[in-house]
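Is thiamine diphosphate placement plausible here? Inputs below.
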Amino acid sequence: MRGKSGTLPGNGQARPMTKSASAQVDSHIPAPGSLGTESLPRDRCLELHRIMVRARAMEERMIKMSKSGEGYFWIGGPGEEAFNAALGLLIKKGEGPDFDFLHLHYRNSATMVAMGMPMIDGIRQMAMTATDPHSFGRNFPGHFAFKKWNVTPISSVIENQFVIAPGTAIVQKRRGGDAVTIVVGGESGSAEGDFASCLIWSTRPGNELPVLMIVMNNGWGISTPHGSQHGAKNVIDRGKPFGIPGEVVEGNDPVASWFAIKRALEYCRKERRAYMLEAKVSRLYGHSSSSGAPRSSDPDCIAMFEEKLLVQGWLSQEAIERLHAEAKAEADAAAAQAVQEEKPHKEHVERFTYAPSSVDKVYPGDYTGVPQRIDD
Ligand SMILES: Cc1ncc(C[n+]2csc(CCOP(=O)(O)OP(=O)(O)O)c2C)c(N)n1
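Reply from A.M.:
I modeled the complex. Tokens:
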């Protein structure tokens, strides 16, 4: 089947193709370099594109909030949408050890959107509202925490997720099944000892763990170029002495990312061992609002994917513009609503500091004060 046209909700009419254009395209978009052996069909490509556009619109509205006083500090994921959208769709989503555990970093917004997070929930964190389901308005934006999907709290102290991840993977290994632990961080953070701890704990002989270690390589650690600090050619090379297979993927391409993530997850699910992925990505608005969040000249994964969708004839220029406008309107409406919502109260500051425990006598509940003396 060649150049199939049609509509998807919100995607508008596909552009009618000329004969010569239809001769050049197929019903799938191939991953670059795969010689067509790995390709995704139209509906999946349009789904990925729509997630990427909505995640970008959410983040751009949040950047605006950081400048307008509707929020303060901003950090987030523009430039990582292609890889993160694919990741979100490939996760075995749910709560508890039979589902994938996610130890994400602060640029994973498109993963959360792909998993089904409503835009307003990301924006609520930016607006610091009590209704923010991730931190009740008490953390930076992009610092998701969502128990129902095994999204463990994201920390702004970089890389500690890599030393926590083996913990959930140990539980999954003991339990059996095919659920895995996925841990994500930046390439600069991989210089931290926590990254080395993950390599060691994931590969102890006889105790190998189903951990997918993902390094999002945007080439920068705030203002320090990666190349000036790391002697290894690729970050994944650091897994080799531990017997961890790995792959470097063009993270700006959603199709290449899809197949690399799929391969990695299949390995971890089946072999119950660690795998490493390094995604080359862009950083489109600098490190954070602290550097003004200016738009960079890095390649834009959305624009690049749209060129392919146009060639396929799956979206017209008008349909693309309409999609962006719809996403922007959704983000604007979410921001307008979020800023009206309840703010946290001072008595909320220490809530949910500790999880309730049925076995801990000292801190049995959500501990928010000095423990009482226990008399046996
Ligand atoms: C333990 C720790 N050290 C330093 C910092 C300050 N810091 C915040 S982000 C960052 C750079 C992170 O770069 P990278 O890991 O490549 O991720 P990126 O932000 O580029 O996605 C640093 C050094 C921190 N938050 N935590």
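Short version: Residues 1-24 have pLDDT under 50 and may be disordered.
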